[in-house]
């Protein structure tokens, strides 16, 4: 704040000098400090900070901005790329350089693989396979619902929620037509749930057991022998053959 010293018409018997250079402040502007009055040049040279950008003193009549132990003239506090003033704008400091949000996003932010727009710093995003998506843009290829934090299965450039992937790609049981999500057995080159492959006669599970078939229907050895197998002329017991199923998917 400027003050003005008394004029020559005032009493000259009392000294009123600059505390730094000793020159009289009568009739001159001065700035009062704890160390006494200072003429304007001495005040600037003694107390003014140096601008981190232009390396000039920030005078008493300049608006001064302060950021991370650095002082700036208002006009020097600007984006290092587009030179936009940052005095009243949001900004980011990258590698000790000041950047407006637009320049920072253009240089350092990712582009959404779905919509092509910038993924703004601090916004929710998903990253997979070296690509980035806005959270709301990362959709199931099947049902087009956001995958968010849900499990998904990548396939041929698409991303599927588990239900859609199973409906589209998972093998289906030859008996119940429902998907096999794990395990299962193969019979006549078709996938079956282990619990679905049962004897047509007694409903005994056949997975891992020897069995045979008639008209494509599987039978355990005992049922087939009782129902269809020829009897031994000597012992009268059924003459049967067996097949062991192969496991599918472990």
TrEMBL record:
This is Four and a half LIM domains protein 3. Gene3D superfamilies: Cysteine Rich Protein (2.10.110.10). Recruited by SOX15 to FOXK1 promoters where it acts as a transcriptional coactivator of FOXK1. Keywords: Acetylation, Activator, Cytoplasm, LIM domain, Metal-binding, Nucleus, Repeat, Transcription, Transcription regulation, Zinc, Zinc-finger. Its main location: cytoplasm. The gene is FHL3. It comes from the Eukaryota. SMART domains: LIM. It comes from Trichechus manatus latirostris. Residues 49-109, 110-171, 172-230 form the LIM zinc-binding domain. Interacts with SOX15; the interaction recruits FHL3 to FOXK1 promoters where it acts as a transcriptional coactivator of FOXK1. GO terms for cellular component: nucleus; stress fiber; Z disc. GO terms for molecular function: actin binding; transcription coregulator activity; zinc ion binding. It is found in: Cytoplasm; Nucleus. InterPro entries: LIM_FHL1/2/3/5_N, Znf_LIM. One of its GO terms (biological process) is actin cytoskeleton organization.
């Amino acid at each position: 704040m400027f003050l003005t010293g008394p004029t020559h018409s005032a009493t000259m018997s009392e000294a009123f000098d600059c505390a730094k250079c000793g020159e009289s402040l009568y009739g001159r502007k001065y700035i009062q400090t704890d160390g006494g009055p200072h003429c304007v040049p001495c005040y600037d040279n003694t107390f003014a900070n140096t601008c981190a950008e232009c390396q000039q003193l920030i005078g008493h009549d300049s608006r001064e901005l302060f950021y991370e132990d650095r002082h700036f003239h208002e006009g020097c506090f600007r984006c290092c790329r587009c030179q936009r003033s940052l005095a009243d704008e949001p900004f980011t400091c990258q590698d000790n350089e000041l950047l407006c949000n637009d320049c920072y996003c253009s240089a350092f932010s990712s582009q959404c693989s779905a919509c092509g727009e910038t993924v703004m710093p601090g916004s929710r995003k998903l990253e997979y396979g070296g690509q980035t998506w806005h959270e709301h843009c990362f959709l199931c290829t099947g049902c087009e619902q956001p995958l968010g934090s849900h499990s998904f299965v990548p396939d041929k450039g698409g991303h599927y929620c588990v239900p859609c992937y199973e409906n589209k790609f998972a093998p289906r049981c030859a008996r119940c037509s429902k998907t096999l999500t794990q395990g299962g057995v193969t019979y006549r080159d078709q996938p079956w749930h282990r619990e679905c492959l049962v004897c047509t006669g007694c409903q005994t599970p056949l997975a891992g057991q020897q069995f045979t078939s008639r008209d494509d229907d599987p039978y355990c050895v005992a049922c087939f022998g009782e129902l269809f197998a020829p009897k031994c002329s000597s012992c009268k017991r059924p003459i049967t053959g067996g097949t062991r199923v192969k496991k599918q998917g472990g």
